[in-house]
Every structure is written in C-alpha cells, then in structure tokens.
Amino acid sequence: MELDDEKRLYRKPCEQSRSFVIFFHGNIEIVSYILRSYPSKKAMKKMKEKIKEVTEPRNRLFWTMNQMVKELNPKIQGWRNYYAMDSFADQFLNKIDWYIRKRLTLFWNKKRNRRKKHSDSRLVGIVAGHSGLKKLVG
Length: 138
Hints:
It is built from four helices and two strands; from the N terminus they run ββαααα. It is mostly helical. The longest helix has 22 residues, at 90-111.
C-alpha cells in the first residue's frame, strides 16, 4: 500500500493530535480517574448512633441474640449495599463491624450480669455469627 505525500500530515508535537489513514501523529496522554465511595465522619457517627439505639436500652435485655441480630441485619445490609461497592471503603466499614461486635458484647455481658463489660468478645462473635449476623466487609 502506497500513500501519497498529500495525504500525510506533518505537525509539531505540541499541536492537537489527529489520526489519519495508518499513521498517528502527536502526543498521547492517558488520564484516568477513580470514583471512591466511602462513609464520611458524619455518616459513621450516625451509623454508630443507630447501632447504639438498638443495643443500649435496658428493656431489651430480655431479648435473645437472635432478636437483636434480626433488628440489626436490615441496617447492616443497607449500609453494605450503599458503601461496599469499592474496596477502599473496607477500612472504614471494618471500624463499624468492630463497633457492632463491641456493642453486642456489652449487651451480652449486661444481660448476664458480668462485671467485666468487654470480656468474651470472641464468644459473642461466635454466637452472633450462628444467629446470622451480617458483616459490612467480607
């Protein structure tokens, strides 16, 4: 295939790029942007308040862990659907998962009149997992 000199275009590299028949003239710039979706400080504070509203009242101490998990799961699933599209949000959502486990530990120990408020967090995590507690990450 032969090309005529008339069809070729010669320019300085700083001019706008154009593509013709086979040849590409000019500088190529690749620009990429990544959309990050993660909860703000204000949103995380509201999440913690909603978790505390569910787990704090003393009149719920007669509830079983299954009832508590049924109350928490729709909220967790909603936050997960909204924020968990990007793996960048995992570091923020892990903090909320930890806070949920902490609040359930306080609920569990208050229900059983234990002196050490934060003890048996591993046991509570196992019981909550068997009850069907959803996680924000994973």
